[in-house]
Design brief:
The protein is α+β, with helices and mostly antiparallel strands. Helix content is about 55%, strand content about 30%. Helix 2 packs antiparallel against helix 3.
């Protein structure tokens, strides 16, 4: 039997139709399934990236928050508390002994307590000391290098009438910053 050219076309049409049916029945759902899986994969990957970015940003935010809390705690620790004033005044006396200065008096000027910004109060204290110039300088330097925040409002130095003219008397008004918490 001889195949005619028209038969070739029919066979070709049958093969193409069978391929199309096979494609539609078998391969198309699989290809569409692969496309759906790929789309799902890409969207999950983006979601993970977003979540990772958010987690990373959250971790950075937590670290920054901890750093700021440490700084705030450190700053808070630099302010005196009213209940710690007695200990601070004893410490002033000890600083005097350590630096060779005699602390004659420590007089809190209660009428000069000023409320600042709702967190801190200012309190002025008059400290009268006697000693050599270098000892007085070391006394003030030690106060400034201490852990508590304070300023010298005024400082007057005068010589004491003694045989040794190197002894000086000083009146220092310190401003202490008191925490309300």
């Amino acid at each position: 039997m001889k195949i005619k050219e028209s038969d070739n076309l029919i066979i070709l049409a049958v093969v193409i139709t069978a391929s199309a049916i096979f494609y539609n029945m078998m391969l198309a759902p699989q290809i569409n399934g692969l496309k759906a899986v790929r789309t799902q994969y890409v969207s999950q990957k983006e979601l993970v990236k977003v979540r990772y970015t958010k987690k990373s940003e959250l971790d950075k935010l937590r670290k920054n928050t901890l750093k700021w809390k440490e700084k705030a705690d450190d700053a808070e620790g630099r302010f005196l508390k009213k209940e710690d004033l007695t200990e601070f005044f004893k410490n002033l006396d000890q600083v005097g002994r350590d630096t060779g200065v005699k602390v004659n008096s420590i007089d809190p000027l209660e009428n000069r307590v000023k409320e600042k910004d709702g967190i801190v109060d200012e309190m002025q204290v008059l400290v009268e000391i006697t000693g050599r110039y270098t000892a007085i300088k070391d006394f003030v330097k030690t106060l400034f290098n201490g852990k508590k925040l304070l300023t010298v409002r005024t400082m007057e130095i005068s010589s004491v009438d003694q045989a040794d003219g190197n002894i000086l008397e000083s009146s220092i008004v310190l401003t202490l910053f008191l925490s309300r918490s």
